[in-house]
From TrEMBL:
One of its GO terms (cellular component) is membrane. Residues 339-545 form the NFD4 C-terminal domain. The chain crosses the membrane at residues 81-105, 111-133, 176-198, 210-229, 241-262, 343-361, 367-389, 410-427, 433-457, 469-492, 518-539. Residues 15-262 form the Nodulin-like domain. It comes from Urochloa decumbens. Pfam families: NFD4_C, Nodulin-like. The keyword Transmembrane applies. It is a multi-pass membrane protein. The lineage of its organism: Eukaryota, Viridiplantae, Streptophyta, Embryophyta, Tracheophyta. This is Nodulin-like domain-containing protein. It comes from the Eukaryota.
Length: 562
């Protein structure tokens, strides 16, 4: 299986069954987002200061965004093989961290733990690439909704693990790391059969729109439930029976997307000829997307006589066909995409937006302690839910903007960057009263940017090499996180030394607004830069979106000849 071609599964249910399986993989593969739950245990076990701990958070960011290799291989390997590689990485990475925290192994060196966390997070990148590329190719006309749903569930990962952490694992970082070590590979093995390519539907139907709406509503219900369960756990003392019941309900809600293929099985409907776009069941190999020749022949009447003469000459071998450079909206090769200014604008926006946001997430436990909020689970749950809401809402709102107004999705990025300027200034106050509001706003903005950039990159540069192109853009996340986390750790440790000067105190935590004030001023300035870059991108790509969505729905442009 090479060049993006893979054996496809017949029937109308497999794409939706694959989407339901992808939901589980996105949730379980987001273990790196729980770093705040076990970061203090790592800090104690290693005897590390805040700078070294911050670099461990960077390891998670580096691993999570080193998706270039799976992006390349997703066109050559079956998704199941990508999932197996990701499962192995999680087993080794989280297993090593568990050995350190549990004391089951002798003291492990700092560099080994850094590499283990990077490896475990990279396992999540393999999982995300497999499910995201496969499902966006299965639903090419609804890529905004698909990206929003999958990245939305990924955003809920931290809240799901937090519920397990407080309700079943007894607030034990050791138990959490053991769950990640064994649980992620188990889910991969159980779901890998269902994540597979199918010939895409190129006709939008009301039934498909209803199915996507159901999946979105199911994810919203899960998010609201998780926030409610987390708050309930902190308001009243729950016994084991109630805790296990809450977890059981959460698991049932995670199964909700699978109700779509179940409904299609129990209540099948007769397809019209225009909807007969599913693949046959003869097991032969077909491309996942229509070829350029098929697209050109489908629009044969649009060519003038000179074009027809050239096409006939090419077909007879009289002249050698030339491959023109693709226009924005068509399929780009990776080496062609990196020559475009839009590509590097997306990279820079990702750097200042997502890179800064992940820095706050990695230091959320210490930010809470500095503001007087010792319990990290509430902040993490709020961030997780709002991150999910931003990812899901970003996909849905951006779909409305491009279809109803033909406005670029990057308009949403401009709005979120402006909000993030204000949010970082709220964080800089270091007040407990504004902490949760700030976390909520940051989660929404972070989630919107995460999902919208995925759709933008696929629309500007096509789906054929989407995995490779997007995963390279995602490298901006760890680069930004490394720089911002280095600054954060340096400022934090300076303030700790100032507060503990002349004191005999074993407390290595920093207290008060000065711990992160300078950091948040810098992040606010970065958000100002992101606003400017997003505005430039929006002005540049407006004509592209007017072309792609001129009829109120996505229209695939004619690709260049290959």
């Amino acid at each position: 299986m090479r060049g993006g071609a893979a054996a496809v599964k017949s029937g109308s249910r497999p794409p939706w069954l694959g989407l339901g399986a992808a939901v589980w993989l996105q949730v379980t593969g987001g273990g790196s987002s729980t770093f705040a739950l076990y970061s203090h245990a790592l800090k104690v076990a290693l005897g590390a200061d805040q700078r070294r701990l911050a670099l461990l958070g960077v390891a998670c960011d580096v691993g999570e965004n080193l998706g270039l290799l799976p992006g390349v291989l997703c066109n050559r390997l079956h998704p199941a093989l990508l999932l197996l590689i990701g499962a192995g990485a999680c087993l080794l990475g989280y297993g090593t961290a568990w050995l350190l925290v549990s004391g089951a192994a002798p003291a492990l060196p700092y560099w080994l733990i850094w590499f283990a966390l990077c490896l475990s997070a990279n396992g999540g990148a393999w999982l995300a690439t497999a499910v995201l590329v496969t499902n966006m190719r299965n639903f090419p006309l609804s890529r905004g909704a698909v990206a929003g749903i999958l990245k939305g569930y990924s955003g809920l990962s931290a809240a799901v693990y937090t519920e397990l952490y407080t309700g079943v694992l007894r607030d034990s970082p050791t138990n959490l790391l053991l769950l990640l070590t064994l649980g992620v590979p188990a889910i991969c093995l159980l779901t890998m059969y269902f994540v597979r390519p199918c010939e895409p539907s190129l006709v939008e139907t009301n039934a498909e729109q209803v199915h996507f709406m159901f999946a979105q509503m199911a994810s919203v219900l899960l998010g609201v439930y998780l926030v409610g369960a987390t708050v309930l756990d902190h308001v009243v003392t729950l016994n084991n029976i109630i805790n296990y019941s809450l977890v059981a309900i959460m698991v049932l809600l995670l199964f909700a997307p699978l109700a779509i293929p179940l409904k299609m099985t129990l209540f099948p409907r007769r397809k019209t000829p225009s909807e007969s776009s599913e693949c046959s069941d003869n097991g032969h190999t077909e491309p996942l997307l229509p070829s350029s020749s098929e697209s050109n022949l489908g629009n044969f009447e649009e060519y003038d006589s000179m074009d027809i003469d050239i096409l006939l000459a090419e077909g007879e071998g009289a002249i050698k066909p030339k491959r023109r450079r693709p226009r924005r909206g068509e399929d780009f090769r990776f080496r062609e995409a990196i020559l475009k200014a839009d590509f590097w604008l997306l990279f820079a926006i990702y750097f200042v937006g997502v890179g800064a946001g992940i820095t706050v997430l990695n230091n959320l436990a210490q930010i809470g302690i500095a503001a007087g909020a010792v319990d990290t689970t509430i902040s993490l749950s709020i961030f997780s839910f709002c991150n999910f809401f931003g990812r899901l809402g970003g996909g849905a709102v951006s779909e409305y903007l491009v279809r109803a107004r033909t406005l670029p999705r990057s308009v949403l990025i401009i709005c979120t960057q402006v909000v993030m300027i204000i949010t970082y200034l709220l964080f800089s106050m270091g007040l407990r009263a504004t902490l949760y509001v700030s976390v909520a706003l940051l989660g929404i903005c972070y989630g919107v940017q995460f999902s919208v950039i995925i759709s933008i990159s696929s629309e500007l540069f096509g789906l054929k090499h989407f995995g490779k192109i997007y995963n390279f853009i995602a490298l901006a996340n760890p680069v930004g996180a490394f720089l911002f986390n280095t600054l954060t750790g340096y400022v934090y440790d300076l303030e700790v030394e100032r507060q503990k000067a002349g004191m005999v105190d074993t407390d290595i935590a920093c207290h008060g607004p000065n711990c992160f004030r300078l950091t948040f001023y810098v992040l606010s300035g970065a958000a100002c830069l992101g606003t400017i870059l997003s505005t430039v991108l929006t002005v540049r790509v407006r004509p592209v979106y007017q072309m792609l969505y001129a009829g109120g729905s996505f229209s695939q442009p004619r690709s260049s000849a290959h």
